[in-house]
Amino acid sequence: MQSGIIVQHGHIPFRKTKQVRSDITGFVGFIKQSQWPEGHKKGDFIEIVIRHERDFAANEFSVCFDDATRYAIGQYFVNGGILAHVFGVCVDDFNDLSAPIEFSYGNLGLQFTQYDHWLNVLFGRLRAEEDISIICIPMAAYLPFEVYPNGDIYCDAEGLYSFFLAHCCEMNNRFLILDAPNGLHADLLVRWVDQFRKRNRKTASHGALYYPWLCNNDKSYPPSGAMAGIYVRVEREHPPIGIEWPPANVMVYGATHMEFEFEWDEASVFSDNQINPIIVQNGRGIVVFGARTLSSNPQMRFINSRRVLSMIKEQIRRDSAWAVFETHNPHLWSVLDRDIRLRLKEFWDAGLLSRSKNGQQFEVTCDSSNNPQYLRDAGQVNVEIKLQPVGCMEQISIDLNMGSGD
Question: Between 391 and 200, where is the model more confident?
Fold first, then answer.
C-alpha cells in the first residue's frame, strides 16, 4: 500500500426536500343524496383538481355540488387563485352538516370519536394531500344559528369549523377561512365570535373570519372563496415566497357591493374583535380591511405571522424526516443543526423572519442538552428552534420531536 493520507467520510448527505406550498386551496363541498353519482354512498367523496374555473365547469360531476361551493370556486379564480382541490362529500341532505362532530385532539393527533362519521374518508384524503394550505367550506355559512336566553349563541356550522381548525393545527401548514353565518350581524356576530374563540382556544389561530357577505348584483354569497384567491394573489405578487405579506388592503374582484356597508369606525370595532371587515373605500372599491386570526394570543394575532410560522414548521419537519432512521449520535445532531440553519437562512433572506431583541436571526439547539441519554435510548431526536416571524414582537419556540415520541 502506498503511503499517504486516507480520508474516510462519515458525512450524512444534505437532503433537500421541495419547498412547502402555501398557495393551494381545498374546497369542501357537499352532494345531496338526490345528486349522488352512481355507485356512491354516504361518506364517499369526489375530488376534482382544477387550475381554472372552466376546468370545474367541464367536469361531469360539477353539477352535483352545492351551489355555495360552485360559486365560491368562480370567485377564487377571479381573485387570483391558481390551483384547487374540490371535494364533494356525499351526505343524505344538508341537515347532516348541522350534526355535532365528536372528535378529540391531543398527543395522538386528531381522532374521530365516531368512527363511522361521514367525514372520516375525506379526513384521510386531506391528511395525505399535504400541500393543501388553505381550506374553505362555503356551504357552512348557510347553516342556521340560535340565540339562547342566557346570551349564548350557537351556530350549526360550529361542528365543522371546530373540526377543521383542529385539522389545520394538526397539519401545520394549513389555514381555515371561515364565513360569518348567514343572518348573524353586528353585536350578535361579535358575541358569537368571542364565544366560538373561547371554545376553540387552542386552535383559533389557524383560522380567520371575514364579514360581511359580498354581492354580485342581486346575488349575495359568503366571501371565503374570494378571500382564498386573495391569499394566493398577495403571495404571488410578492416573490420569492410572499406568505409574509398580510392579505389585507387589497381589492376584492367580482363583487359589485356588499350585503351591508359600514363606516371606518364601525370596521375597527369588528377588527378589534378578530373579525376581518370588508369595506368600500373611495376610489378603490371593495377592500379587505383586516388580517387577523381568530386567536386572542398577541403572538398569533396576525394571519401572515401564523402562516409563516406554520409553513416553516412544516418545511423543517419534512426536511428532517430522514433523521428518524439514522444512528442517534453527536454527528447526527451536527448534520441536523447545519441543515436546519441552511433552511432558516433561506427564509431569512426571503424576508420571512425578523431579528429578536438580542439581535439574533434565529437559534437552533440540537445537542446533549435537549437529547439526554434516556431519550436517545427511546429513539427520539429533539431539536429546539427559536425564531421571530414577521409581525411578531417576541421569539417563538418550535420543538421538533422525531422518532418514537412523535
Answer: 200
